[in-house]
Write a structure and sequence with these properties.
The chain has 7 helices and 2 strands. The chain has 160 residues and is mainly alpha-helical.
């Protein structure tokens, strides 16, 4: 695996380290929101975990098994609504376990791919292309988009 890909995977792993930190917080913290009317921390972590599960099951795992990927455009509002519902009905420990598990499955499967498999562009069910390095870059951005305000909020509240 080339250095650039390993660097991307190390940055991609930062989310799991953050979730492990969050796992030590009390339930009331998990049910708090950064701002009134915004998602709870539990909802944010559920949202991230469900995206990881989606991309693992529909793309990364398929690539590792040499099967066609089954990614397709999803309704973001609907996906996010379901993530919030999932978070509301699921124990923190389960969300944490799944968040770490799916992120590690993605990383382990990518590490097991050949350079050729990593560099291929795969066509999803809707014709859109999936390119692993681009996916990692986009989700590292997405991770940071959620982690930065969470860290600021938790530090300001004295929880981190």
């Amino acid at each position: 695996m080339n250095k650039e890909m390993e660097h991307l995977l190390q940055a991609f792993e930062e989310w799991t380290l953050f979730v492990k930190t969050l796992s030590r917080l009390e339930e009331k913290v998990w049910n708090s929101s950064l701002e009134k009317g915004k998602w709870t921390i539990k909802s944010i972590v559920s949202h991230m975990m469900l995206w990881d599960r989606y991309f693992y099951k529909e793309a990364i795992e398929k690539i590792a098994l040499n099967q066609p990927i089954t990614l397709k455009h999803v309704d973001l509002d609907e996906f996010n609504r379901k993530a919030v519902e999932y978070g509301n009905r699921t124990e923190v420990s389960e969300i944490v376990d799944k968040a770490i598990t799916y992120r590690h499955k993605i990383m382990n499967d990518i590490r097991g791919l050949s350079e050729e498999q990593i560099q291929l562009k795969y066509k999803g069910l809707d014709g859109n292309l999936f390119y692993i390095p681009e996916y990692l870059e986009e989700f590292i951005w997405h991770d940071q988009h959620h982690m930065k305000p969470l860290k600021t909020y938790l530090a300001a509240e004295g929880w981190l």
